[in-house]
Specification:
globular; five-stranded mixed beta sheet; 5 strands; alpha/beta
């Protein structure tokens, strides 16, 4: 599998969120090429600001691997991580992050600010724009439906 394949899996998670009335963001974590964790936004469902797709995927991956350091893992997420999620990624030591759509408002690794480039800190690599159109279209459709 390649980054597009893993992003398609993240998009499947985002579609689940969409159907539940959640902002459609999905995440996948791989370990040595195998998917070990999937998640989608559940802030509305769980009534908790911490239930972003990335943080839940990190939680599940830590449980699966039995530790908090995810240094042999990659994260695929349909939207550029926000500051909270970028901080969780740094703290989990995830070396590579692939995201779909750029987030000009809240993006915290490329668009608005870059928490992955802080001095004296773990610095994940990031790759944006993976299946960007599909990820952006899903978000656009969700907010259009919400407004109607």
């Amino acid at each position: 599998m390649n980054s597009n394949d893993y992003m398609k899996e993240a998009l499947k998670q985002a579609h689940i969120a969409f159907e539940l009335g959640e902002v459609p963001i999905g995440a996948v974590i791989t370990h040595k090429g195998e998917i070990i964790s999937t998640a989608y936004n559940k802030r509305e469902t769980k009534k908790n600001a911490l239930f972003h797709a990335e943080t839940e995927a990190i939680y599940k991956a830590c449980n699966k691997l039995g530790g908090w350091r995810l240094w042999e893992c990659n994260l695929y997420v349909t939207l550029e991580p926000c500051p909270m999620c970028a901080g969780a990624i740094v703290n989990a030591r995830i070396p590579k992050v692939y995201f779909g759509a750029y987030d000009l408002k809240n993006g915290a690794c490329a668009s608005n600010l870059n928490l992955f480039n802080m001095e004296n800190n773990f610095r994940p690599e990031f790759f944006g724009g993976i299946l960007e159109k599909e990820c952006s279209d899903l978000l656009r459709d969700f907010f259009k439906k919400l407004r109607n």
